[in-house]
Amino acid sequence: MDRPFAITLPVGSSRANHTGSWRVERPVYVDHLPPCNDACPAGENIQRWLYHAESGDYEAAWRILVEENPLPAIMGRVCFHPCESACNRVRVDEAVGINAVERFLGDTALARGWRLPDPGPDSGRRVLVVGAGPAGLSATYHLRRAGHAVTLVEGAARLGGMMRYGIPAYRLPRAVLDAEVERILEMGVEVVLGRSVKDIAAARDEFRADAVFLAVGAQLGRRVSIPAGDSAKMIDAVTFLHQVAEDDPPLLGRHVVVYGGGDTALDAARTARRLGATDATIVYRRNRAKMPAHAEEVEQALGEGVTVRWLSTIERFEGERLLIEKMALNAEGFPEPTGELEELDADALVLALGQDTDLSLLEGSEVHVADGVVPVAESMMTDVPGVFAGGDVAPSDRTATVAVGHGKRAAKGIDAFLGDRSFERPERHPLAAFERLNTWYYADAPRTQRPELERIRRQTNFEEVVGGLTEDNALFEARRCLSCGNCFECDNCFGVCPDNAVIKLGGGDRYEIDYDYCKGCGICVAECPCGAIEMVPERI
Amino acid sequence: MTETRVHFYQVGSFAVGNRLLSDADRTVQASRERTNSLDAGHRACQGCGEALGARYALDAAMRATGGRLVAVNATGCLEVFSTPFPETSWRIAWLHSLFGNAPAVATGVAAAMRAKGRDDVRVVGQAGDGGTVDIGFGALSGMFERHDDVLFICYDNEGYMNTGVQRSAATPPTARTATSEAVGADPGNVFGQGKDLPRIAMAHDIPYVATATVADLHDLERKVERAMTFRGARYLHVLVPCPLGWGAASADTVRLARLAAESGFFPVFEAEHGVVTGVRRIRRRVGVEEYLRPQRRFAHLFAGEGRPDLVARLQLIADANVERYGLAPEEE
Ligand SMILES: Cc1cc2nc3c(=O)[nH]c(=O)nc-3n(C[C@H](O)[C@H](O)[C@H](O)COP(=O)(O)OP(=O)(O)OC[C@H]3O[C@@H](n4cnc5c(N)ncnc54)[C@H](O)[C@@H]3O)c2cc1C
Ligand SMILES: Cc1ncc(C[n+]2csc(CCOP(=O)(O)OP(=O)(O)O)c2C)c(N)n1
Ligand code: SF4
Ligand code: SF4
Ligand code: SF4
Ligand SMILES: [Mg+2]
Prior knowledge:
The structure holds two protein chains of two kinds.
Chain A: E1 25-29, H1 35-39, H2 46-54, H3 58-66, H4 72-78, H5 82-86, H6 98-112, E2 126-130, H7 134-145, E3 149-154, H8 162-165, H9 174-185, E4 190-193, H10 200-206, E5 211-214, E6 220-221, E7 233-236, H11 237-245, E8 255-259, H12 263-274, E9 279-283, H13 295-303, E10 307-309, E11 312-318, E12 321-329, E13 335-345, E14 348-351, E15 355-356, E16 387-389, H14 400-418, H15 455-458, H16 471-478, H17 492-496, E17 502-504, E18 511-513, H18 523-527, E19 533-537
Parallel strand pairs in A: 2-3, 2-5, 3-4, 5-16, 7-14, 8-9, 8-14, 9-10
Antiparallel strand pairs in A: 1-19, 6-15, 11-12, 12-13, 17-18
Chain B: H1 49-64, E1 69-73, H2 77-82, E2 93-96, H3 102-115, E3 122-128, H4 129-134, H5 137-145, E4 150-156, H6 197-203, E5 208-213, H7 217-227, E6 234-239, H8 243-246, H9 253-262, E7 269-272, E8 275-279, H10 288-292, H11 308-325
Parallel strand pairs in B: 1-2, 1-3, 3-4, 4-6, 5-6
Antiparallel strand pairs in B: 5-7, 7-8
Helix pairs in contact in B: 1-7, 3-5
The complex binds flavin-adenine dinucleotide, thiamine diphosphate, iron/sulfur cluster (3 copies) and magnesium ion.
C-alpha cells in the first residue's frame, strides 16, 4: 500500500474494527411527554412551541401553538396554567412562565396579523354548534380545519360566552377577545346571533346538520335562601357581571358584600370596587387555604382593597345590615358554626355560589342528563349518536382551557363520527419525569415577573391589570425551558461519546447512533440534559 | 482570567453545543468538522475517560494550530488501545517510542521542527499518569527546565491501568489497586505519599500550567487554546475517570469527573509563570463521599461499619484544595 513518507499505519484504519459487537445495551433516542404538555387541558405542545420561541422564531412557535388552541392571547391572560404547576423547572428554581410567553405569542400574532391555517377541503358535511363560548369556538375552529361546514348559533347578542359576559375586562380586554374570535370566523363560519336554541332535535333538522355540538355552558347563578327583608338588594354574580359586560351595571351602593370563595366571587368584588363601592367584602365559610379561588387572583384582589371575612356564613340580610356567623374548623378541618354573630354594613349582596346549567333545550330529546350535566364518552359524544357536548355543560373543571380542550376533542370525535370511523385518542408518550433529567447543564435563571398596573388605577377603571412581557423577557423566559424529554440539540451526546459513535445530522434533524462503533457505555444517556436517550437491552 | 459563563441561554456554556449560541461560543466538539483525532474502532473500554479526554484535547489543539500538530505518546492505555498493529485510530501525526521517554521524544520532535524552520508545527507530548508522574518524570522535568516548545498533557486516571491497575504516584490515598490492596488497618493506598504534578510543574516557572477534567469541555478546550498561545514548555493535567480501574459504571465517567471537581477533591485551575491566574469555582458543592461511593476502589470505606475516619481525612484534602485555590462557590 502506498503511504506518505514515514507513515507506517493507514490513517483511521481502526474503523475496520467494529466495536459495536461489544455492546449488550443500546442507546436509542426517544421523545417523552413533558409534564407541561401532559397537564395542559387544551393539549398544547408547549415544549415544542417554546423550542421555537427560544430561537426567536415566534411565528413558528405560534403556528405550533394554534395547532391545538386558536385562542393564545386569551389563554395567556385567563388560563389558570396547570402546566406551570406541573413544570419540571419547579424543582430547579421556579416554573417556566409558560402562560406569559403564550400571551406574548398571542399578542405578537395579533399585532402582526398572522392568520390561522386555512380550512380543510370541503367535506360536504355540516355541524351545528350551539353556544359560542370557548368550547363552541374551539370546536368550530377544529371542525373548519377538518373541512366541515359550521353553523354557530349563539343565544346572546355577541360571541365569546363567559369570556365576554363573565370574565371582567380588566383581566381580558375585549379588543383581544374580539380579535381572536374574528380570526376564527374568517375561516368561514355561518353565525346566528341572538337565537336561543329551544329544542336540540328541531334545531338539528332546521339547520340540516349532520352532527351537533352542545356547548351552552352553565349560565344560571346558583341561589341559596337567605332570610332577607323586603328592601334587601340581592343579585347573583353571573347576572351582575353580565350586566356590567353589557355596559348596564346595576346600582349596588357603597357597601357591597359578596358571598362565595371562588374566582367568580373575586371577580364580582373587584368589579364592585371599580364601580365605586367603598368597601367590597367577601364572606367565605372556610379559610384561605381552602379557598378554591386561585392564589394569584386573591393577591390581586386584596391589593385592590377587597377584604375577606374568612370562616363566616351569612345568617340574615335586613336592609342595610348583614348578620354573619363565625365558623371554627373542627378536628377534621371542616367549618362548624360557633353561634357568634357579627354585623356588616351592606347595601347589596352578590351571590357567587357557583353556576348551574340550563338544559331545557334537551327536554323531549334522548340526551341523558345526570347531576345537572351531560355525560359524554371519550369522543365527547352523548348517548345520542351525532350529538356531542363539552365545556361547562359536560362534567369538567369548568375553566376556559378545559372548554377549549373539549371543543377540540369533540371536533375530532365528530370528524370520526362523520367519517364512520371509531374515535381513538392519540397515543401518549411516557412522561418525561424529573428523575430523567440531568439538570447540571441548565444555566441558573430565576423567573421573570409580569408587570402589574398600579393599584390606584386598578380601583377605578377596567384597564388590564397584568401586563405582558417585553420581547427580551419572553425570550429569556422561553429559554428557561428544560425541554423535558425532547432533544433540543445541545450536542452533549455528540460530544461525550468516547467512541465517536454519535452522528450529528444537523439543521434540526437531530442525531443518530452509529451502532457499528457504539459500545453501549451509556454516557450519552447519563449526560443528556433532558432525558431524550434511553438504554435498551440488546437483542443477543 | 476565569472564564465568563454565557448566561440565560438555556444550557449556557455548560453543554457541548447550544443552538442558541454563535459558532464561536460553541465547543470544537460541537462541530461536525472536528478532527476526531482519535477515531472510532479503538479498543478502549466502554466509557473510557482517557479516550474521551484525548479526543477533546487534541481536537482543540488541532483547531488552535490549524492542523499543524505532531503528537508524541508514551506507552499506556492510550497508545495500546489506539494502535494495535496494523491498525491505528489516529487521524493526526502521531509517534510512539517508549513508556518513560515521551517528554524527551517530544523535545526531539520540537528540535527537529526548529532545525527545519517549521515553527508553524506545534508539538504535544502525552502520557498517562504513570508515564508522567513516575517513569517519565525525569525527562519531563528536563523538558520543563530547558523550556522546550512542547505542550505536555497528562491523562490522569490515577493508576497504571494498562497493565492491570497498579498504584502510581497519582493514586489517591485509600484507593484500592492491585499493589495497594484494601487490607489491614490502613486499607488501600497510603496517605502522605504521591506527587502533585501541576504544582511541581509550576515550580519550574514554565509559562502555563493548568488542570481540567472531561466534565467541563468549555474549560478544557479553552485551556488547550490558551496553552497554544505560549511558546516553551507548558503542562496540562486532565482528570480522566477509568471505569475499569475505579470500579465504576461506564455511564458514570463524566459524572465522576464532575463530582471530583465539585467536591474540591480535584482542583481545577490554571497558572501562568508559576502564579495561579484562574480557578474553576465549584458550582454545586458536594462532600467527597458523594464522589467516592460510586467507585469500587473505595468500597472498603463504606462496607459494614465503614471507615468514616478515612473519609473524613479525604474530606480534609478536598477542603484544603478549596482553601488553597479559592474554589468555594460564588455567594448568591
Ligand atoms: C366570572 C367568571 C370568571 C371566570 N374566569 C375564568 C378564568 O379566569 N379562567 C378560566 O379558565 N375560566 C374562567 N371561568 C370559567 C370559564 O369562563 C368557563 O369555564 C368557560 O367559559 C366555559 O366555556 P363554555 O364554552 O362551555 O361555556 P360558556 O363560556 O358559558 O359559553 C356558552 C355559550 O352558550 C350560549 N348559550 C347558552 N344556552 C344557549 C342556547 N340555548 N342557545 C344558544 N346559545 C346558548 C351562551 O350565551 C354562551 O355564549 C370564569 C367563569 C366566570 C363565570
Ligand atoms: C519501561 C517499561 N516498564 C513497564 C512497562 C509496562 N507498562 C506499559 S503501560 C504501563 C502503565 C501505564 O500507566 P499510565 O502511564 O498511568 O497509563 P494508563 O495505562 O493508566 O493510561 C506499564 C507499567 C513498559 N511498557 N515499559
Ligand atoms: S421545563 Fe419546559 S418542557 Fe419541562 S415542564 Fe417546564 S415548560 Fe415543559
Ligand atoms: S456514549 Fe457512545 S458508545 Fe457510549 S452508549 Fe452512547 S453512543 Fe454508545
Ligand atoms: S444530549 Fe443534547 S443533543 Fe443529545 S439527545 Fe440529549 S438534548 Fe439532544
Ligand atoms: Mg494511568
